[in-house]
Design brief:
Layout (H helix, E strand, L loop, with lengths): L1 H26 L15 H10 L4 H12 L3 E3 L9 H15 L4 E8 L6 H21 L11 E4 L16 E9 L11 H11 L6 H7 L1
Parallel strand pairs: 2-3
Antiparallel strand pairs: 1-4, 2-4
């Protein structure tokens, strides 16, 4: 019994030491050494994060793209045809993409679960290629659209063996930065923000301008 008590006490002491050491390590860190993980605020901190590799700027842009633009288009059964709804979505994607010439994108193709896996992988790839072709027709450089990938039927939105349009889709995603683009080399996050600020300016109407004088 005495041996058990001694062993238990030793474990408690070691645990306390570990907690103390961890606390001391955190206490002795230089002020400001932890990078702010804010996405589109605190531009200086984001610059530091991008340059040091502690913040993946591409992930932040990816979240923003997905929240501001519909990243998905769907297709008729066994088809790569783009209907007007799909083309309208791709045009909105192209408009967003043009705001960020530093960024590359990847298009993933999907199918429903009808048909063989090998056929569906090829069909998904052709759908992704159709989306890429339309984006290039809207003025997006093909060099910014990475090698197209296909998931075929392996990632359905709705798990069913029946025909399901929501599964017959492509998804556009941010994949990284254009190599050696001048606004990326130094993590110039502020330049992107300033460019958007200028683009968002709305001219005052004649009445509003007069009221402001």
């Amino acid at each position: 019994m005495k041996t058990v008590l001694i062993a238990t006490a030793a474990i408690l002491v070691l645990s306390a030491c570990a907690q103390t050491n961890n606390g001391r390590e955190n206490f002795n860190r230089p002020a400001g050494s932890s990078i702010d993980n804010g996405n589109f605020g605190a531009a200086t901190m984001n610059n530091l994060g991008v340059q040091s590799g502690q913040i993946d700027y591409a992930i932040n842009l990816g979240h923003r793209f997905a929240s501001e633009v519909n990243a998905t288009i769907t297709f008729p059964f066994n088809s790569t045809a783009l209907d007007e709804t799909a083309r309208a979505t791709l045009r909105r994607q192209a408009t967003w993409i043009k705001q960020f010439p530093e960024v590359r994108f990847k298009v993933f193709g999907h199918t429903d679960l009808v048909g063989s896996q090998s056929y569906n992988r090829r069909l998904g790839l052709r759908r992704a290629q159709a989306a890429v072709l339309y984006l290039t027709s809207q003025g997006i450089s093909r060099s910014r659209l990475e090698a197209v990938s296909s998931f075929g039927e392996s990632q359905p939105v709705i798990v069913t063996q029946e025909m399901e349009r929501r599964n017959r889709r492509t998804v556009t995603e941010v994949s990284g930065f254009v190599t050696n683009h001048p606004t990326v080399l130094n993590g110039k996050y502020a330049e992107v923000i300033f460019r958007e600020y200028i683009a968002s300016a709305v001219p005052l109407s004649g009445t509003a301008a007069a009221d402001g004088q």
